[in-house]
Design goal:
Layout lengths: L4 E8 L2 E7 L9 H9 L7 E6 L8 E7 L4 E2 L3 H15 L3 E6 L2 E7 L5 E4 L25 E2 L7 E2 L2 E4 L3 E6 L9 H9 L9 E9 L2 E8 L3 E3 L3 H13 L6 E6 L6 E7 L6 E5 L2 E8 L6 E3 L11
Parallel strand pairs: 2-3, 4-6, 12-13, 14-16
Antiparallel strand pairs: 1-2, 1-19, 3-4, 4-5, 6-7, 7-8, 8-18, 9-10, 11-12, 13-14, 14-15, 16-17, 17-18, 19-20
């Protein structure tokens, strides 16, 4: 068996994704390889989407997801769109069914190039998110950063979209907050035994939000699909918006938009947005040694 596999550097609304083809193999992308790849500016990423042979009947692939710190992720909506684009280009198909640790995901590429992913149903029960304390109503929990009498962030909506999320509602530009400082504290707060994705959300109209996210295991990110879904669901759940919203991801360059529908008939969350191929190469999934298609082999890097 070859020591290297094909991979593609892609992005979903700026969310840096490595799509790694592990089909036909029994091994996995190791945490050590992920950390090594993230240490190089050219292969730095938010998530690795490793495509494996399907484990369940009726699915097209098992997707193993790694964060940039080598930890496992349960869901990545922006990364799923990248996988769909890669497989659609390879096969000519438009619709796919994937299995992840978070469950089954159905996705489809549209004629205009945008991709919709059915992210499943949101989870609101405190012990399934999970939280370390019991809350009957998780649309607003007691948690804050800053002075007790004048907190900087407080009373987030919390839920799981396959992974834990805390949405802090703010009334000014999300870029004006020092999320790089507060993000690690909140991600690792004792309230979240499995850590959490931390999102700042500003309501800009009854059908639109602006968000910025500190991503669990990845840090400040240009975009996070499951966070956008969580913000949209939480906004509708708390009466701030309707069930269909446009999410402006402020940290993307340029700022990009995801369309999120929390479907009333079955409570499924449908995320629609773009994906973009950047370049391809080969990588050793054990060590992170990689080379790019359009450079000489001597340009490859041992990380």
């Amino acid at each position: 068996m070859s020591t290297t596999v094909e991979f593609a550097r892609m992005n979903g609304l700026g969310n840096k994704i490595l799509v790694v083809d592990m089909r036909g193999r029994k091994d996995k992308v190791t945490p050590e390889a992920a950390i090594a790849l993230n240490a190089d500016p050219e292969t730095q990423f938010d998530q690795i989407m490793a495509i494996h042979d399907p484990k369940a009947n009726g699915t097209d692939a098992w997707i193993d997801i790694l964060n940039s710190d080598g930890s496992k992720a349960q869901a990545c909506g922006n990364g799923t769109r990248c996988v769909v684009q890669a497989l659609a280009s390879e096969t000519g198909r438009r619709a796919f069914t994937f299995q992840t640790v978070a469950g089954i995901l159905n996705a489809e590429e549209h004629a205009d190039g945008t991709i919709s992913v059915d992210m499943g149903t949101p989870v609101f029960e405190w012990n399934r998110i999970p939280l370390s304390e019991e809350f009957y109503d998780t649309s607003r929990i007691e948690l804050q950063i800053g002075p007790i009498d004048d907190p900087i962030l407080h009373s987030p909506s919390v839920m799981s979209m396959g992974n834990p999320h805390a949405i802090f509602w703010v009334d000014r530009d999300v870029m004006s907050f020092d999320l790089e400082r507060f993000g690690p504290l909140l991600e690792n707060h004792p309230m979240f035994p499995e850590r959490a994705n931390i999102t700042l959300a500003q309501v800009t109209s009854p059908s639109s939000l602006t968000t910025r996210t500190w991503e669990r295991g990845a840090g400040l990110t240009l975009a996070c699909g499951s966070a956008a879904c969580s913000a949209a669901v939480s906004a509708a759940r708390t009466g701030r918006t309707g069930r269909t919203v446009a999410i402006t991801v402020a940290s993307a360059t340029p700022p990009g938009i995801l369309s999120i529908e929390w479907r009333e008939r079955d409570d499924h969350v449908i995320m629609t947005g773009p994906a973009e191929w950047e370049w391809s190469g080969t990588v050793d999934p054990t060590t992170g040694l990689w080379s790019r298609e359009d450079v000489a082999a001597t340009e490859s890097r041992a990380l």
